[in-house]
Amino acid sequence: MEVNEVLLPGVGLRYEFVNADGDRIGIVARRSGDVELVAYRGDDPDECEPLFRLTADEADAVAEILGAPRIAERFADLTREVPGLAAGQITVPAASPHAGQPLAHTRARTRTGASIVAIVRGEHVIASPTPAEVLHPGDVLVVIGTDTGIASVRDLISQG
């Protein structure tokens, strides 16, 4: 799918694409963080009909909802393309010695060779978490590595 980006001076950016049904859709990302979705009429490519507007917080929530499954799909696709690479999900138990500690405390990549590439916390996804990101009980860690490396991260998170 091709997405065209158009600078709107003083307003923000407009992204346009044609969906599978042939509808021309626009997303106006305003400098304020608000987002407006519009649909273009077939008979006049310059005239659009506003569909709805989202506040910055609402747009962030929608992006996270749509982004979480896409992140998982992309990692799944990657693991199919690269022999020996796997993706796993590990839940941080309440009794974990790493709960309440920064991600760096685990030293997971150094100790196991596997990388924690995202943290799913409730409905929020923290992609590419920094070493300072504090782990919470119930967090789901998305891990990329070998099957052995992922199992080692699971043991590390559970037992220390």
From TrEMBL:
UniProt xrefs under PROSITE patterns: RCK_C
Record GO biological process: potassium ion transport
Boundaries of every RCK C-terminal domain copy: 73-159
Gene3D superfamilies hit by this protein: Regulator of K+ conductance, C-terminal domain (3.30.70.1450)
Pfam family, one: KhtT_N
Stored InterPro entries: AAE_transporter, KhtT, KhtT-like_N, RCK_C, RCK_C_sf
Entry superkingdom: Bacteria
Molecular function terms, GO-annotated: monoatomic cation transmembrane transporter activity
Family matches, as PANTHER family: K(+)_H(+) ANTIPORTER SUBUNIT KHTT
The protein's name: Cation:proton antiporter regulatory subunit
